[in-house]
Amino acid sequence: MIRGRLGHRKAMAFSVISVVVLLLLYTWLSIRQHQINPSDTTIPDWGQLCDGVKQMISPHPRTGEVWLFEDSLATGYRLFCGLSWGVLGGFVIGVLMGCFRIVEAVLGPPVKLFAKIPPTAALAVFFVVTGTENQMYLAMIAFGVLPVLAQSVYLAVREVPQELIDKSYTLGASNLEVVWCVIVRFILPKLLDAIRLQIGPAMVYLIAAEMVFGHVGFGYRIRLQQKLLNMSVVYPYLALLAIFGFMMDYVVSLMQRLFCGWYVQGGKR
Amino acid sequence: MEKLSPVLECCGVSHWFGTNNVLHEVDLKILRGEIVSLVGPSGCGKSTLLRAIIGTHPPCKGKVVVHNIDGSANTVTRPGRDRGIVYQRYTLYPFLTAKENVAFGLMLDQSSLAGRLFKYFNWRRLRKDHLQQAEELLVKLKLGAALNLYPHEMSGGMCQRVAIAQALIMKPEILLLDEPFGALDEATREELQQMLLSLYAENCLMQREGKEPPYTVLMVTHELNEAIYVSDRVVALSQYWDWQGVGHVVCPGATIVYDNLAPVFQPGDQRDYVAFETQRQTIRNAAFEPDILQDSQQFKQFWEDVMQGKGKGVLA
């Protein structure tokens, strides 16, 4: 049945099965590839992958750097700061656009325009404007997610029933209180949903920029290692990226449960 | 009657949208403690009049004046604290529980954002008091079991009662009900009608004690029986009146065509539909018949009757 219920245990079982099937499929592919070419590194076997992970977590013999630590720190910092700035900007612009017609008239067209430009295509612009330091990555993520988030927030604000706003005034609310106590609280779960959806694109922008300009970070390391066909390092990095994204997503969904219980329990999610 | 002061005055209120005339010189004065029902055919402008009173759509011509209990008066230009509103679709804040919903207005009215942030401990004390008041009112409205429920966890009737409590706790000069029971089943509807009768009984009691009646209500409804049963006065708005007789070439909009006393009931009194029939029929003739265009003054005896002492309840 469409949208029929599935028990928690069953859902967990299906999730585990899907991961196990993926791992089995990979193992089969790897074995098959190694039968054709025993020294293959494009689909490394589990032993090769372990060696790759050791390489990641051991200090480099020449520089003493631990790749995993250095790259996680750089990428994590850029992603967190870039996303934070993007969310803050998108939130403020979206709320203002949704609340005030004049702001909508002024900022609506540029926001729509920027939302259509992929930040990866404007890499050169960010490079020229901000240089190749961290600011470039932050600006790229922030400007990448900002227009989409601003539009999502704007639409969410427009969905707040007019009657609820009018009623707030009859209860003695000021304009600021209507925005802060009613509109922001009403759209908060949708803002968190929008942030969750923007984590993926933000990572895409960052990895793309790191691949081109980076000296450290996941994108830089992946590009370097893939040139050497050293997939035993590339795959763990990809897995780490997935875990990174998943954890961020989990944290935001946890915030949603914590601060917007009414939305989660109300069957809207 | 002399003791009763007006709470709301619509003075020559006209409204139009482009070339579409909706309201034409609506004059309505509501006295403190009255429960007035506003009826009329679909599309006659009841909601437009209500919006003009709320202040979200101020009239194109004329004015709406609210007289406060302290003797001051203000012309309505925007929604304000002196007018409470309850909508048909029980508009509650979905992110607040029933108790918090009711206390929300007290919070907005008695504290500021800065105060809540920078005088946190004062705010916590005040908050406790607000929640206590909200709880007491909800218990009075038989919602003691729903204090901590969110709107999505409550039935339509419960939500509507919370919405009424939310408006009442603010002690507005006038409470506006926009088809408040339209989306409810018959049993819940009757229960809420009883609640309105209880408010009216409280008004009468206060008046007998020489105090100002606390609740003044203007209710928009489609249901004539409900209008006659719940209120002490029925006002009908209609576009079906003899506008040609007063020199208009096109209909200038709806105006008040019926304004009369309604029988006063005590909570628990049975509705006698047969007794309502004469008044129902008169309202139908005055407001709901497109083929019978009558002088708009013909069915407006409210003030005469009140002056002659025919009023009951708070109008006695």
Describe the 3D structure.
Chain A has helices at residues 8-36, 46-57, 67-99, 101-115, 123-130, 134-159, 162-170, 175-213, 218-227, 231-259, 261-265. Chain A has 269 residues and is mostly helical. Chain A folds into 2 domains: 1-40; 44-268, MetI-like (MetI-like fold, Orthogonal Bundle). In chain A, helix 6 packs antiparallel against helix 8 and helix 8 packs parallel to helix 9. In chain A, 35% of the residues are buried. With 316 residues, chain B is of the alpha/beta class. Chain B contains 9 helices and 11 strands. In chain B, a hairpin with a 2-residue loop joins strand 1 and strand 2. The chains are: A mainly alpha (269), B alpha/beta (316). The interface between A and B is medium-sized, with 27 and 31 residues.
Q: Could you give a short description of this structure?
A:
Chain A has helices at residues 8-36, 46-57, 67-99, 101-115, 123-130, 134-159, 162-170, 175-213, 218-227, 231-259, 261-265. Chain A has 269 residues and is an all-alpha fold.
Q: Determine the mean pLDDT of chain B.
A: 89
Q: How would you classify the helix and strand content of chain A by structural class? A: mainly alpha
Average pLDDT, all residues of chain A:
90
Rg calc of chain A: 23 Å
Number of helices, where a helix is a run of at least 4 consecutive DSSP H or I residues of chain A:
11
Distance between the termini of chain A: 18 Å
CATH superfamily of the largest domain in chain A: MetI-like
The end-to-end span of chain B amounts to 6 Å
Biggest interface found: A-B, 27 and 31 residues
Query: Low-confidence parts of chain B lasting 5 or more residues at pLDDT below 50?
Result: none
Order of helices and strands of chain B: EEEHEEEHHHHEHEHEEHEH
* Strand and helix order of chain A: HHHHHHHHHHH
Class from helix and strand fractions of chain B: alpha/beta
- Radius of gyration of chain B equals 20 Å
Arrangement of strands in the largest sheet of chain B: 6-7-8-3-9-10-11
